[in-house]
Amino acid sequence: MPEAKIAPHDLEAERAVLGGILLYGDRISEVVETLEPRFFYLPKHERIYTVMLSLFKQGIPIDYILVRAELEKRGWLGGTDGKVYLSELAMDVSAVTNIRYYAQLVEDRYRVRQVMDASGMVYDKVSGDPISGEKASEILQRAAADVAIERVQRKLSPISDVTLEAVESAEAIAAGIKKTPGIPTGFIELDKRTQGLHPGELIIVGARPSVGKTSLMLDIARNVAQQNTGVLIFSIEMSKTELGNRLVAAQTPISLKSLRAGQISPQTRYAIHEAQEQLAQMPIYIDESPRLRPIELLAKARLACAQFKIQLIMVDYIQLMEYPKKSENRQQEMTAISRSLKAIARELNVTLVAFSQLTRASEQQNRRPRLSDLRETGSLEQDADLVLFLHNPEMHSKSKSEKPNIPIQCILAKQRNGPTGTFMLMFQRAFTSFKNAAEGEQERLPDWVTNETED
Predict the structure, then answer these.
(1) What CATH number corresponds to the domain at position 76?
(2) Which of 42, 167, 241, 302 lies at 20 to 30 Å from 161 by C-alpha?
(3) Domain interval for residue 98
């Protein structure tokens, strides 16, 4: 057999991963599903990562002191030298933003070592006794398959596990042990039809301008955050100051107009401060980047998910996003953006709600929005798991209503895992906020609402 060589490894990448986790313990959530202790080349690195995984699975925050204590408890610290080495890892800031990349390098070097080990085993088998070339080739193929099968098995789930999980979940919900899998939005009819917001799904909310897309976004964000669920908002259209005004107005009996004009009485001043204190307790985070590309959204969302346990991401609105590669037309760019958003929802296992402008067709023809109004905006219709349209029938009427509450038709035009249909929400004009329709108002929807068909 040829002279043995040092097995491929990348100690810098291994140190970067461990150092990044020691500095920011929550970052382990970014690699825990793909990186295993045996992937590390140095035994002491394997032991350190094993301890980190143990703390993570117990729900214990990961930091230098706790990792050192657990290593010492298991007899893995190695005295003074071990303490010094661990402290040096904790000072390595190189992986703070690239921990996933370094983790991939660690796994890649492990896979190469696997191939080398398999090759060595094949060499030992075929060099001892003379065998045919066909037999040698068969042994080589089997060894290569053994290396590949381990990685494939980690991504495959047998149907028995999948179906058992589905049945157990349904039984737990029926018994009241477990809530429905989705996150409630706070809007009764929407939750009844969708069972809430589900991780991994891309939801498109479309409407013509000034119908209430941003208002609905903030209402859902508040309702979800009140359940102590992290929400991340990418506001490309409005500044965080504008969103702050809307959030406070929606949380108080004070109109947005009065709030912005500073028309505050002693009574309303108390209400404003009380609303601010309530909002301050909600895990809502806002990014007001005026220019946003999918790769930037992913990087920011990934970090926020690790730090703040984000489960809902909202983008207002999708047509204002940019794509780095120039395409022949905007439709191709929107197709790429749409598919990127769906991939982000799946990768981060969050619900991603993207708000969308619609084509002018519905406005010009004085009709309700339909799926065909999304077709000029790339593949939104195909990529979305759920499409919801907002429609104000009175918007383009010659005699515009000045009623304080405006009935808005919510058209559930597509849902992969549930029914479609139409329901109503009431838009509170003064507070730019939605509320559930009162009992009996849902029945007032005209017959043509449910009978209209798609082109």
Answers:
(1) 1.10.860.10
(2) 302
(3) 11-155
User: What mean pLDDT do residues 360-372 have?
Assistant: 72
Q: 210 in the Ramachandran plot: left (φ > 0), alpha (ψ -120 to 50) or beta?
A: left
In whole angstroms, what is the distance from residue 385 CA to residue 383 CA?
A: 7
Q: Which among 36, 46, 72, 237 is annotated as catalytic? A: 237
Residue 237 falls in the annotated catalytic set: yes
Where b means 16+ CB within 10 Å and e means fewer, 271-302 reads bbeebeeebeebbbbbbbeeebbbebbbebbb
CB atoms within 10 A of CB 66: 16
Are 110 and 256 in the same domain?
no
> Do both 132 and 280 map to the same domain?
no
pLDDT classification of 202: cutoffs 50, 70, 90 = very high
Q: What is the pLDDT of residue 93?
A: 60
What pLDDT does residue 48 have?
92
Residue 101 lies in a domain: yes
For the full predicted model, state whether its pTM sits above 0.90.
no
- Is a pLDDT exceeding 90 seen at residue 314? yes
- Does 95 share its domain with 202? no
Task: Convert the pLDDT of each residue in 274-308 to its tens digit.
Answer: 878 888 888 989 888 888 888 888 878 887 887 78
